[in-house]
Amino acid sequence: MTEYLISFNDEWVPPHTAEEIREKGVAGRAVIEEMRAHGVLVFSNGALDRSTAVCSVESVDGKPVFTDGPYVETKEHLGGFAVVDVPDDETARYWAGRLATALDWPQEVHRFPGPGEK
Question: Ranges for the YCII-related domain (predicted)?
Answer without folding.
Answer: 27-98
